[in-house]
Design a protein that fits this description.
- There is one protein chain.
- This protein is α/β, with parallel strands linked by helices.
- Helices cover 45% and strands 18% of the residues.
- The protein folds into three domains: 8-65 and 163-319, Rossmann fold; 86-154, Rossmann fold; 335-406, ACT domain (Alpha-Beta Plaits, 2-Layer Sandwich).
- Helix 6 (93-105) links the parallel strand 3 and strand 4.
- The mean pLDDT is 91.
Length: 415
């Protein structure tokens, strides 16, 4: 998906958020958030064929860029608004950013979270000092209730993305990148509601209009892609990038991104998983699904980035540890470093020992064995073994299969 390229006039003057707003936000939040590092990744550059630089926003205290916009919005409030308190709707990073900085500033905060929000995120938000209200089955339900409380209790609503102060706060990431890197060709940004991409795009295009701005969405939630085509987005399904899984981008953010976004790439769940794994194994850092979306775009369309100097925003690292473990294990299966094989033989003493010996002498590690005598496709005097083995790589796995076949125990596909 390619958007209309901006003119110099559009870039400089006709946006609802300006470079001056972003520079003001940078001064306001300076010293109150982490100025995160921008680092070159030699290994990811070799893997993708691009020159890859990474902005590590997962190193913020709450492990997400959301702190920047939330803090800038909170600092813009009047004394009476601060005294009355703020309210936000979120199931994740925005909730923690608002709660943490509101507590630091002595501002009462209420966060409405939908049912089904992971317990760890609820607890983190509470621990940061917010009054957490669990309401509704969806984010839309939670948003509606938050708006009702806003009016009833005279609170200030802190929107997760469609707010000028929030967008300007997120744009400080772009300002830091411009200060740290003399030149680059492409800026790749995960897109959910659009606050991050709108802010960064405004900063980058204001100073370096030739830089290509590429947005990334999960294929299941192509909200910006549809918006740029003037269509209703068809979204839905379980995605590992839940942080950018929105039904519709914001009005302000859409206005900005129509002018500044050069291209939108949709990424699959498989590409998102691979990107999370690469961040963990290559960069030794934790990325949530949304945070890994930029790298997933390079994996999805390497030809678009080949040989170009590319900046990625690793925007968040709040991934459930069980989910991370599952993603890393699935990557081993994908690379055939963990493989399940099925062997059928005569049900006699020593059969499993012989098979285990062949696997062990070939350098494989047996993780699990299931012994089945009752399967109807196995002879009455036979036995079936499902054996899960760990190997060095796909080639090593094949060597073990060949050794088993030579020894008279040819594995069958395990379906």
């Amino acid at each position: 998906m390619t958007a209309k390229p901006p003119t110099a006039v559009e870039t400089a003057t006709s946006l609802p958020v300006t470079m001056a707003d972003i520079e003001a936000a940078a001064k306001a939040i300076e010293g109150k958030i982490e100025r995160t590092p921008l680092r070159y990744s030699r290994t990811l550059s070799e893997i993708t064929g691009a020159q890859v630089w990474i902005k590590f926003e997962n190193l913020q205290f709450t492990a997400s860029f959301k702190e920047r916009g939330a803090l800038n919005k909170l600092l813009s409030l009047s004394n009476s608004e601060k005294a009355a308190g703020v309210i936000a709707m979120s199931a994740g990073n925005h909730a923690q950013g608002v709660a943490y900085h509101a507590s630091r500033l002595g501002i009462p905060s209420t966060i409405v979270m939908p049912q089904g929000t992971p317990f760890v995120k609820i607890e983190h938000t509470r621990n940061f000092g917010a009054n957490v209200i669990i309401h509704g089955e969806t984010l839309a339900d939670a948003d509606k209730h938050a708006r009702e409380l806003e009016k009833r209790d005279g609170l200030t609503f802190v929107h997760p993305f469609d707010d000028k102060h929030v967008i300007a706060g997120q744009g400080t990431i772009g300002l830091e990148i411009l200060e740290d890197l003399a030149d680059f060709d492409v800026m790749v940004i995960p897109v959910g509601g659009g606050g991050l991409s709108a802010g960064i795009a405004t900063a980058i295009k204001s100073r370096r209009p030739a830089v290509s701005i590429v947005g990334v969405e999960p294929a299941l939630y192509p909200s910006l892609s549809a918006e740029l085509r003037g269509e209703e987005a068809k979204v839905g399904g379980a995605t590992i990038a839940e942080g950018i899984a929105v039904k519709k981008v914001g009005k302000l953010t859409a206005e900005i991104l129509r002018k500044l976004m050069d291209r939108v790439i949709l990424v699959s769940e498989d590409e998102l998983e691979r990107a999370i794994t690469l961040f963990a194994t290559v960069e030794k850092t934790v990325a949530e699904g949304a945070g890994a979306a930029g790298l997933a775009a390079l994996l999805a369309e390497p030809h678009h980035f080949h040989g170009r100097k590319v900046v990625l925003v690793l925007c968040g690292g709040n991934i459930d540890t069980r989910l991370l473990a599952s993603v890393l294990t699935r990557s081993l299966v994908r690379e055939k470093r963990i493989t399940s094989i099925r062997i059928i033989g005569n049900d006699q003493p020593g059969l499993l020992a012989k098979v285990s010996t062949v696997i062990g002498e070939s350098g494989g590690n047996i993780i699990e064995v299931n012994h089945n005598r009752l399967a109807l496709d196995v002879p009455a005097k036979g036995a079936e073994f499902d054996i899960t083995i760990e190997t060095r790589d796909a080639r090593h796995t094949q060597e073990i299969i060949d050794a088993l076949t030579k020894a008279g125990f040819p594995p069958r596909p395990h379906t």
